[in-house]
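Changelog entry: the Stationary phase survival protein SurE record was regenerated in this release. Current contents:
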Amino acid sequence: MFKKNNLYIGMLYGCVAPVLAWLIFAVLLKNDSIFLDKPAIPYLIAIGLNLVMLRFSAKAYLDKTSNGIMIATFVCTLLIFVFKMHIS
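Regenerated structure tokens:
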């Protein structure tokens, strides 16, 4: 999976898990979710998956890809925080 050392590919990898979490929990499950009491749990799981991807790319010495994943993780975390604080 991690073969190219590119910042933009790292950002793309970093956006995959949060987008999938949003699609699965917000669009597909809507009101049937177990996590209705804690709506940020799917996004926290996505951030955890991003950190696992970050670890694998760092072990492969792909510095630019690791930076891209880290940037995407921080941006997604900030967006989730801002939207959750704004909605509440």
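The chain is about 75% helix and 0% strand.
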